[in-house]
Amino acid sequence: MDPMDETLEELIDEVDGYIAYFEDVPSEWLRPGEARLTRIAERLRKLKESLDK
Amino acid sequence: MWWNKDWNRDMKDAFKNIAKLRRWGGLRYVALYSMSESPKNGAEIMDEVERMSMGAWRPSPGSIYPLLNNLQEEGLIRKRDDQRYELTSAGAEEIGFSGHRHSHSHGAAYSTEGALAELESYVSYLEDLPKDKLKPAEARLARIVERLQRLKESLGK
Questions:
Q1: What integer pLDDT is reported at residue B24 of this predicted model?
Q2: Between B54 and B75, whose confidence is greater?
Q3: Whether the Cβ atoms of residue A41 and residue A48 lie closer than 8 Å to each other
Q4: Closest-CA residue in chain B for A50?
């Protein structure tokens, strides 16, 4: 696999960080944003799938 | 001319590294100090930094969580069963404390709506990247998708 360039790695670190943050906060903080979170998850899933092709 | 393209690139790298060091050095100290008051998770450290700076500075999750990983690898903090981090004796020494102080802090709840909006902007950027550029990140992206799925499932409970 090609090594990730620094910019992409930093970008993925940022995304990782947000997920870790959401895992840390109490569920009740996140629940109002559940629909938005679902849309984000779906977009990332599609993005990942597009790389498989 | 006495400068050339290489020199320009070296200077650019140097300034980039200085900016990175300042960012990490400052946040590193503040995060350790925050954990000296009481064990905290990443979200609570973000709240604390914002409170300590009177709202002037709120580090992003992308800054905090990699920093916590580094501090743990360096043996300055350890993760507890409740997923919060606490200082080790080495961590306490690092910031000049021989022991932990105890106090209560009450950071304001971070707007998860704001964090979701920020994350959306990152997703949009990733979607805009050419696929061949994104391909090296495929495995990490897959893990992120799995974690998001688990997170969604946990909210459904």
A1: 45
A2: B75
A3: no
A4: B131
Give the bridge partners for B40, in sequence order: B85
| pLDDT digits 0-9 by tens, B137-148 | 999 999 999 999
Alpha helix (H) residue ranges in chain B: 5-37, 42-52, 61-73, 89-94, 112-128, 131-134, 138-156
Rounded-to-integer distance, Cα A19 and Cα A9, Å: 15
Q: What is the pTM of this model?
A: 0.57
Distance of CA A24 to the CA centre of its chain: 14
3-state secondary structure (DSSP) of residue A16: helix
CA A20/CA A26 separation, integer angstroms: 12
User: ipTM value of the model?
Assistant: 0.89
**Domains along the sequence of chain B with CATH:** 5-100 (1.10.10.10)
Interface probe, candidates B35, B119, B149, chain A, greatest A C-beta count within 10 A:
B119
Within 8 A by CB and 6+ apart from B137, the residues are: A4, A8, A9, A12
Cα–Cα dist B118/B116, whole Å: 5
Q: Which of B113, B133, B144 sits opposite A15 (nearest CB)?
A: B144
* Contact of A13 with B34, CB cutoff 8 Å: no
